Amino acid sequence: MQDFSYQRPAALTAAIEAFEQAEDGRFLAGGQTLLPVMKHRLATPSDLIDLAGISDLEGISIAGSALSIGAMTTHARVASAAEVHDAIPALAKLAGCIGDPHVRNRGTLGGSIANNDPAADYPAAVAGLNATVYTDRRRIAGDDFFTGFFETALEEGELITRVEFPVAAAACYQKFDDPASGYAVVGVFVSRGSQGVRVAVTGATPCVFRMRDLEAALNRKFTPETVSGFCVPEEECNDDLHATAAYRSHLVGVMATRAVAAITDGEM
Amino acid sequence: MAVPGIGDAVSRTEDQRFLTGRGNYVDDITLEGQVYALVLRSPEAHARIVSIDVSEALALSGVLLIVTGEDWQREGFGHIPTKSAVRTNRDGSPIAEPPRHCLAMDRVRFVGEPVALVVAETAEVAASALALIEVDYESLPAVVDPVAALADGAPQLWDDIPNNLCADFELGDAAATDAAFAEADHVIAIDIANNRVTAVPIEPRGAIARYDADSDSFELYNATQNVHANRDTFAEQVLGIDKRKLRQIAPDVGGGFGVKNGVYPEPALILYAARQLRRPVKWINTRSESFLADTHGREQISKVELALRADGTFLALRTTTTGNIGAFCWTVGPFTPTGGSARTQGGPYAIGAMHYQAKAVFTNTQPLDPYRGAGRPEASFQIERVIELAARELGFDPVELRRKNLIPRAALPLRTPMGLEVDCGDFPQVFERTLAMSDRGGFAERVAASRARGRLRGFAIAPYLECTGGAPNEYAGITFTADGLIELAVGSQSTGMGHETSMPQILAARLGVPLEDIRYVQGDTDATPIGGGHGGSRNLEVGGNAVAQAADEVIDKGKAIAAHLFGTPLDRVSFEDGRFLVPQTNHVLTMPEVAVASLDPGRLPEDLQPGCLNTGSTFARSAIVVPNGCHAAEVEVDPQTGIIEIVGYWVVDDFGTIVNPLLCDGQVMGGIAQGIGQALLEHAVYDADSGQLLTATLLDYALPRAGDIPDMAIEYYEGAPTEKNPLGVKGAGEAGCCGAPPAVVNAVLDAIKESGVTNIDMPLKPEKVWRAIEDARRAG
Amino acid sequence: MATLTLTVNGKPVSAQAEANTLLVEFLRETLGLTGTHVGCDTSQCGACVVHLDGLAVKSCTMLALQAEGTEVTTIEGLAPPGSLHPMQVAFHQNHGLQCGFCTPGMVMASVALVTDNPNPSEPEVRQGLAGNLCRCTGYQNIVKSVIAGARAMER
User: Under an 8 A CB cutoff, do C61 and A40 touch?
Assistant: First the structure.
């Protein structure tokens, strides 16, 4: 790993200031993606600004009809928190299937969605639950947050502070994970709430997306059978060593059907 | 302190240090003043090296030495020879062996081939220096598939080796086989591929070299499985030094599975660097580098043909295979797809005629060398897959067809058409016991229950037969010390199998002393005059028997001492339960008492000297032994995704005498897990055009995790200890990965049989299973 | 260089560390605690697992400086010198290790697993060990060890 300077500010403003002063600064959240990348010298920042010292960024609370999760909250905490289990059990389940237990003890919600790996799990929940991403300077609707392959709406130096997930009546995340990496080959998050049905797909394409035509059909008739007939075209799917585009396209249908079935069966 | 017996489940001595973090692996060793070496590896699959510019890297502060192929050539160092037991082609001409140098000279032939060595004060500086070496490559076309490499017009790796053909091999009787096929009622043929995998011991390879200028001698601490043979090659064939001046020590080694057996270039490079710099040099591979720098295993593309009579009797077997051996002949690389896969063709079945033909082929890939089983898993897979297809095509019950053709006990001993001496065993009994364990009676109900949940259930049974290998001789030395300890030094070596427990267990049982009195030494060229290291499931067979033989010699000598002390004639002294005694008298001396006397000149007869009880003995294998057994697997397949779950796994093994069932279980379980890994998950994949290894990290190469491996029920058949060695042992280390791939693959194919799918090549990744079902459905 | 102050195996430690020093490097090279191993470079194998404030983490995927002010426990500190933790005993009795290289991480992961879930089922153990690779044992005896260790830890 190439050398860099390390800072751990205790306040948000100090972190932003440190970033602005750095030549090529990066925020360090849980580090479960960034540090391996740096070990392979695929990223060589001049400064790492560790966010772990900013206590405001960590924590889980219920705010009205929404669940608010601090950006630095670990996957393990989300997976085990009673508030999450009570409000959105599918979100707890999703957090509990990211990586492995040790990764979940370090990896964070903010780090995951800021990175927007096309095979990451959290983006499916943010899009699938119509969450709102709060940053140091604004709020961004979940639908607007993920803009492309490893790209988000975040501006240079903009820092996620927390994410607010509206409590859905029912939700389910179905994941087909890669046996080597644990990443989602395909993951489908289905939610059903007062705003209607949402279906978000991760892993299949370069960036998480919603299947709006399927959502409309499910709004009319929420049954597993409804899913058949809707697919993500093969041409739009990722095709790599781990799965062909055709298989990913097929898996989206299987995972969506199973998510809907689980919701209708009440096993979320 | 109890005296252990042969067959006791003794838990391990070495666990104490491993469980408390006090193991001593090579990366745990720090020598005074050590510096760090890294290897620059070729990013090209096939290219001419136009130039190498190291000036910028050398100028970096902290860089101490850079070695290139040109330097190596200037020093006049030799290349690393292959020790393949197959040396000639079917026509008697020698196999092709191109020179394998420690560093590429003017051309690179696979991604990962060492191009330069960098030594620096720290590993970080060495890494920065690597990035500053400028190599100008002129790319050449590459070929990674062995069948494509044989074709006319394929890229040629070696100017003097036509069609990339290393070896053209055959074994068996072609005429008899052809005749049997001609008169057969049925001929079943299958084309199968045995996937390329790699061993991935969790400890990456690494070494530290130290040079002492005063004595002009070297010490090499190396994560290797084979200190003696590799020492000899480094010294005599590569560096041109007196091998007595090179001591090689393998400290605790974190897994091997064959991949740490061969002779690699890096240790030779750092020995040289240590001499140049007069400082200890340490080199440790990263995991990602290991995928490019450790040998791979398997990879054969085969046609298997079985001739049967109308009633299902097997008449003849013909196997034609193409084995990829990578860009060079590695230490025994050409042997695996040729002799290594030939010997156990046909498994435990009575087959009158067999013919095996193999081509070993060079490609622009990482060289292949033995990986746990080294040819026998391939042979087992070949026969079991063709039998499964025969049963399907001809309408036989796969269990019945196998049962009908197993070699009966009364037919043993016999010599197979491949020349393998099968001396003992009871294949039908082992088969029936495995079946009984697997609850066939409840299967139909389980199938129905699975179906109700949208899952397909399948079963397969896979008897196997394999053989031991590796160095045929082994040494055991027993030394009695004044402090009452017995030092046992053996030239075989554990990389996790537990020799530190099993070998002293044999000695303790023989001499009637507690395990605690024995100190075990292994993995050190100074500790034993010879040593065959680890490989071919050889340890108990040759190492264990060397210990038993040495112990018997100690007992004979002890009798002479006891007779002197008793004042009785030698022929009246006997040895029972650890005691020398004269029956019907009160003359009794324990082994430790005689050991103490053996060091005291005043208590010895005139013709014996103090230390006379110390014994070194070499056991020489008369013939390889034949472990065998039977695996059975039950699986559930989700046809919508292709996901496979192994829901039942049963094994009965015949390893002859079981010395320590606890450790033996561990060998079987580990072997099965690697076999399941090969069957379902693991695949080292090269890009056909660029020759890049696509599975070069653990993010891409799937190793089995705890959730991928089922609980296995394991039993032993001990009714046929071999008479080929005094302990009656047959070897256990590689059996698991012979039985598991065919058991699992055939069970999956059984589960999806209604789809009409008859073959899917390993690994059976969910997508392949789903696609095979889909394609069959579409084809109607 | 910065001064890093933390508690390792119950003892206060203060030592110099570079920003780019990983926690595992600090433990192995600066403190000489070589029981924590490095088996990969992509955070897959778990040979480097230690406890950080009681949680199992991969010490190869943390900077040493991120451990400022924390309590780290390595395999060397799991039990007082001369004694074994019940989980270590269980691994020994059930032959839950062979080459020993993955073992420190496996044991640390197992202790954390049982701390979270004192009475795990076999599937829960298998899932809970998803972050630890073993190439020798086929996992069966590890799973057996963890279940036995859990029972012993309850007592």
Answer: no
CB contact, 8 Å: C74 with chain B?
yes
Q: Do A3 and C2 touch (CB under 8 A)?
A: no
C95 and C48 within one domain: no
What's the gap in Å between the CA of B472 and the closest CA on chain C? 24
Asked if C50 and C96 sit in the same domain, the reply is no
B700–A241: do the CB atoms touch at under 8 Å?
A: yes
**Second CATH level (architecture) for the domain A170-265:** 2-Layer Sandwich (3.30)
Partner-chain residue, chosen from C28, C75, C136, that has the shortest CB–CB distance to B670:
C136
Q: What architecture is the B296-468+623-779 domain classified under in CATH?
A: 2-Layer Sandwich (3.30)
pLDDT for the residue numbered B262:
95
Compute the count of residue pairs across chains A and B with CB atoms less than 8 Å apart.
37
Full residue range of the structural domain in which residue C51 is found: 2-77
Q: How much is the mean pLDDT over chain A?
A: 96
**Same domain for C92 and C67:** no
Name which of A39, A102, A180 is nearest C49 (Cβ-Cβ): A102
Tell me which amino acid residue B546 is.
A
Judge if C92 and C69 occupy the same domain. Answer: no
**φ/ψ bin of B567: left (φ > 0), alpha (ψ from -120 to 50), beta (otherwise):** left
Answer whether C92 sits within 8 Å of B19, measured CB to CB.
Answer: yes
pTM beyond 0.90? yes
Q: Is the separation of the CB atoms in B770 and B777 below 8 Å?
A: no
**Orientation angle between helical segments B661-676 and B736-751, nearest 10 degrees:** 50
Structure ipTM: 0.98
**Positions in chain B short of pLDDT 50:** none
Cross-chain CB nearest to B700 (options A3, A176, A180): A180
**CB of B55 within 8 A of CB of B135?**
no
Chain position carrying tokens 């040998």: B295
Q: What is the pLDDT of residue C1?
A: 85
Final residue of a domain: which of C21, C49, C77? C77
Give domain limits for chain B: 31-140+203-254+260-293, 296-468+623-779, 470-620
Check if the beta carbon of residue C132 is closer than 8 Å to that of residue C46: yes
How is A44-80 classified by DSSP, letter by letter?
--SEEEEGGG-GGG--EEEETTEEEEETT-BHHHHHH
Q: What is the pLDDT of residue A267?
A: 58
A42 close contact with B: CB closer than 8 A = no
> Which of A40, A41, A254 is the closest to B640 by Cβ?
A254
Interface list for C 3-22 with A (CB within 8 A): 18-20, 22
Same domain for C147 and C118: yes
pLDDT at B695: 97
Give the start-to-end residue ranges of the domains of chain A.
1-53, 170-265
Which pLDDT score, from 0 to 100, does residue A194 have? Answer: 87
Q: Give yes or no: residues C123 and C58 share one domain.
A: no
Residue A232 burial by Cβ neighbours in a 10 Å radius (0-12, 13-18, 19+): buried
Q: Say how many CA atoms lie within 13 Å of A69 toward its Cβ.
A: 33
Chain A's closest residue to B703, CA to CA, is: A180
Which chain B residue's Cα is nearest to C140?
A: B711
User: Does residue A268 register a pLDDT over 60?
Assistant: no
B242 vs A: CB within 8 A? no
CATH number of the domain at B470-620, out of 3.40.1010.10, 3.40.50.1980, 3.30.365.10, 3.40.50.10470?
3.30.365.10
Backbone angles phi, psi at B495, to 5 degrees: -115, 25
Whether residue C100 is found in the same domain as residue C66: no
Residues facing residue B648 across a β-bridge: B634
pLDDT 10s digits, B314-363: 999 999 999 999 999 999 999 999 999 999 999 999 999 999 999 999 99
Task: Tell whether the model's pLDDT for residue A64 goes beyond 90.
Answer: no
Query: Which class is domain A1-53?
Result: alpha beta
